[in-house]
């Protein structure tokens, strides 16, 4: 049968290859058109940030490097508190990364490598939190922060994101995949259970940890509403950008003349995430896909 | 040297699946037995401390608040179910539900487009595939504030590039930011733009898990690409479709950032006021009792919809 099909498919393959190539190229072209359409808003923003307003308005699509300027950026920086904003964001992200990358694997270790009473219940309880969309948590948390006198503090800023249920779920499945023989060997060498965690598991799951780090970084850095609500006096970079937009729009006679600085601000704010993404693509992709397609 | 393997259901409580320390039974003190049993609880404790302090307690307290009328400071006035009945009879609430339902359309459209994209980029020879993937994923990486700032400018009727392009083609500019219908469509487009890349990523990964043999067998049996798609691809994607639908539906139901930021707190004349916007408006107005009631109602809606989705899915996932 195989010989017959090979003989039959060869001439067919040669014929089909030409036709298939054309459809294939068309489909790839279609894919690329879509990709460019998706890219358009972001690319346009970056380009527009460098252009002086006048040319901006008359011909929004022209790309002429000779007229690129940096005044939009300087205006944006003078109007908006970018320096402080970056500092606040940096502290916020660092704290959240440190706690997440330690406590999530730790809890994942507890859930996946141990058996204990109530494990299933507690695990389910943790997963339940994933159903509560952030905005429904904001009000209760805001009230609590207020009652604790924690408004405008770093601890209030990081609290909702300190340990993520998604992170624990993900780490559980990753750690479950670590072969028990490795753990046995460490035990034989005299490690306590924490030693096993720190010396064996953490190094072994390092790629997954990096992925978790990338995803956590993006989530924390991009967060807007919680910082807006809870640390109004100490804005993170996203809040700075939003404030910049409203103050520039308020001050302008027409909205269009102040676009340059706003778009420059937006470019500055999303550049870190794009750069991190480009360098850490592999880890980001792995991170996003983890834990969703098991089974 | 004894290594104790853990049995399926036979491990005593608190026992470690990993081999225990190597010791004679008589050497194990009751303290270390206690420590060993407590170990896993210690490891998951940090999460649960946070869980109780910053999730369970505030949620419970918020329920308490929802039974009162409160402006954030000062006295709380008991109103029982008053806030809930107010919300349920408020026209704004029902309008918000309609708007949210419309915005939810971004989910089927976005997932469909994501699937198309995934099929397109999963083909054997795609020129520049890794670049394409990066491009499609950019929306997932950019923050919502940046996205909103960008689209607010893009959608501007006088000089935003979209309308300028339309005008240069001789068409009427579209009043994205000022017309109620177009504003909703504008928000819809932004959501779709945000969703497509990630959906394509998930679908792409699932598609790669489908063994090529299935397709080869179908070709031999005479099935063309369309038939193959519907009889092989789709059924094997149902799990991914369900997962993406539930996750994106929850996000759509709680959506508030885009209408709030792009359309100025809920659109021209509240046209783009989703449930989330409605909630935020109440918070802004310092009507925390009502706001809490809205958030519970919203969560209840989400849970009901999720459960319904799971149950219906289970029925046609039996293939």
CATH A-level architecture of the largest domain in chain A: Orthogonal Bundle
Integer count of domains of chain B: 1
Counting copies of identical and different chains, the oligomeric state is heterodimer
Instruction: Tell me the number of helical segments of chain B per DSSP (H or I, 4 or more residues long).
Output: 13
Alpha-carbon distance between the two ends of chain A: 35 Å
Superfamily (CATH H level) name of chain B: MetI-like
**CATH topology tier name of the largest domain in chain A:** MetI-like fold
The CATH homologous superfamily of the largest domain in chain A is termed: MetI-like
pLDDT < 50 runs, ≥5 residues of chain B: 1-15
> In sequence order, what are the helices and strands of chain B, one letter per element?
HEEHHHHHHHHHHHH
In helices, the fraction of residues of chain A equals over 70%
Low-confidence runs of at least 5 consecutive residues of chain A: 1-13, 291-295
User: What is the H/E order of chain A?
Assistant: HHHHHHHHHHHHHHH
Question: What report would you give on this structure?
Answer:
The complex is a heterodimer of chains A (295) and B (319). Chain A is 77% helix and 0% strand. Chain A has 15 helices and no strands. The longest helix of chain A has 48 residues, at 2-49. The relative contact order of chain A is 0.13. In chain B, 68% of the residues lie in helices and 1% in strands. Chain B is built from 13 helices and two strands, in the order αββαααααααααααα. In chain B, α3 packs antiparallel against α10 (225-253) and α4 packs across α10 (225-253). Chain B starts with 29 loop residues before the first helix and ends with a helix. Residues 1-15 of chain B have low confidence and may be disordered. Classes of the chains: A mainly alpha (295), B mainly alpha (319).
């Amino acid at each position: 049968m195989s010989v017959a099909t090979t003989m039959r498919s060869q001439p067919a393959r040669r014929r089909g290859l030409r036709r298939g190539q054309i459809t294939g190229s068309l489909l790839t072209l279609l894919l690329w058109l879509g990709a460019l359409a998706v890219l358009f808003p972001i690319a346009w923003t970056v380009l527009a940030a460098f252009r002086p307003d006048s040319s901006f308005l008359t011909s929004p699509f022209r790309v002429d490097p000779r007229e690129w300027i940096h005044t939009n950026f300087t205006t944006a920086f003078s109007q908006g508190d970018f320096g402080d904003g970056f500092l606040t964001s940096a502290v916020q992200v660092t704290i959240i990364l440190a706690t997440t990358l330690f406590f999530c694997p730790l809890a994942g270790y507890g859930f996946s490598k141990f058996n204990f009473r109530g494990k299933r219940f507690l695990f389910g309880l943790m997963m339940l939190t994933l159903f509560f969309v952030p905005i429904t948590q904001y009000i209760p948390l805001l009230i609590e922060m207020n009652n604790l006198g924690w408004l405008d503090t770093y601890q209030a800023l990081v609290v909702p994101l300190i340990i993520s249920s998604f992170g624990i779920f993900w780490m559980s499945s990753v750690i479950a995949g670590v072969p028990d023989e490795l753990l046995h060997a460490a035990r034989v060498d005299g490690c306590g259970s924490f030693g096993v965690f720190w010396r064996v598991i953490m190094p072994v799951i390092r790629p997954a940890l990096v992925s978790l780090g990338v995803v956590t970084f993006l989530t924390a850095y991009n967060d807007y509403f919680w910082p807006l609500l809870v640390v109004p006096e100490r804005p993170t970079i996203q809040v700075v950008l939003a404030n910049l937009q409203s103050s520039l729009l308020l001050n302008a006679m027409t909205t269009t003349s102040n676009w340059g600085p706003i778009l420059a601000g937006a470019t500055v704010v999303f550049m870190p995430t794009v750069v991190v993404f480009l360098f850490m693509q592999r880890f980001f992709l792995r991170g996003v896909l983890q834990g969703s397609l098991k089974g | 040297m004894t290594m104790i393997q853990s049995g399926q259901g036979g491990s005593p409580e608190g026992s470690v699946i990993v081999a225990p320390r190597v010791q004679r039974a008589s050497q194990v003190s009751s303290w270390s037995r206690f420590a060993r049993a407590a170990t896993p609880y210690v490891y998951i404790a940090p999460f649960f401390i946070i869980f109780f302090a910053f999730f369970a307690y505030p949620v419970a307290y918020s329920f308490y608040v929802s039974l009162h009328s409160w402006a954030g400071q000062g006295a709380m006035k008991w109103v029982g179910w008053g806030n809930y009945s107010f919300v349920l009879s408020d026209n704004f609430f029902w309008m918000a539900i309609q708007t949210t339902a419309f915005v939810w359309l971004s989910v089927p459209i976005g997932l469909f487009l994501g699937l198309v994209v995934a099929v397109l980029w999963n083909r054997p020879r795609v020129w520049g595939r890794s670049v394409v993937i990066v491009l499609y994923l950019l929306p997932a990486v950019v923050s919502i504030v940046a996205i909103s700032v960008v689209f607010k400018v893009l959608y501007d009727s006088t000089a935003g590039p979209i309308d300028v392009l339309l005008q240069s083609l001789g068409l009427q500019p579209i009043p994205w930011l000022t017309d109620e219908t177009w504003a909703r469509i504008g928000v819809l487009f932004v959501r779709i733009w945000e969703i497509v890349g990630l959906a394509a990523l998930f679908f792409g990964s699932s598609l790669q898990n489908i063994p090529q043999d299935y397709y080869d067998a179908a070709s031999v049996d005479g099935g063309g690409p369309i038939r193959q798609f519907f009889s092989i691809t789709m059924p094997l994607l149902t799990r991914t479709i369900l997962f993406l639908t539930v996750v994106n539906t929850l996000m759509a139901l709680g959506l508030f950032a885009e209408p709030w930021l792009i359309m100025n707190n809920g659109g021209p004349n509240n046209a783009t006021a989703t449930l989330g916007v409605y909630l935020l408006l109440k918070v802004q107005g310092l009507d925390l009792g009502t706001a809490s009631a809205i958030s519970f109602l919203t969560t209840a809606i989400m849970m009901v919809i999720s459960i319904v989705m799971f149950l219906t899915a289970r029925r046609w996932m039996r293939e």
